Every structure is written in structure tokens, then in C-alpha cells.
Amino acid sequence: MLLQESGEMYLESIYVLTKKSSAVRSIDVCEYMGYSKPSVSRAIGLLKNGGYVSVDGEGHLSLTEVGKDVAEKIYQRHTMLTELLVRLGVSREVAAEDACKIEHVISEETVAAIKNYVESASE
Q: What are the structural domains, with CATH classification, of the chain?
């Protein structure tokens, strides 16, 4: 299953929510993302069918290994890009919004270059 930007956003949201609480449900994703219950339900169904998310009998969401790998990658991109933009003088709020848009379209080569830059600038 080819994962679209929206799928990546859902996985990242579940990942972030899981860091805060071990019991994440679809309603938590709704509240976090500001989406309707039907939209989240449909997305979770697609992610479940794609092998990215599992849902237990009580409705708790868990990322599969594949889902967790994708979510961690997107989350790391988001935090790295946010930090870079803040260092360039962008407010944290705008930097986080822009990073959210950029993280889905940026190439691996550019991500690696930014990572090297951020790490070397920290030394």
C-alpha cells in the first residue's frame, strides 16, 4: 500500500499520542488532529488494512512495526525541520506548521544534509 501524506499524518499523530499515553483510541486521534469521527474511522480502517495499525477488542490503536518505522521517520523529520527553521529565526509555531508541510515531500538526500548541518551546528 502506497502511503499518502494524510496516512503519514495519522501515523505520526498516533505515534505522538502513544508517547503520551499507552491507550490511544480513534477519538483521541479525532481530538488531536481536529478531524471528524467518520474521517478518522475511514483512515484507521485503511491503515489497518495496509498493515500499519492494529486495533484491539477495546478499540485501542497500536502501530505495527512498519507503521512505527514510518511514524518515527516522519516525526524525526518534523522535529529536525522545526529546529532548523527556529534556528533560522522562524517562530516555533510557524516553524512547526511549515515543517509539517515539508516533512512529506522532502527527499532523503536533503534530510540527510539537513541532519548533518543541524548536528554540526550543535557542536
A: 5-69 (1.10.10.10), 75-122 (1.10.60.10)
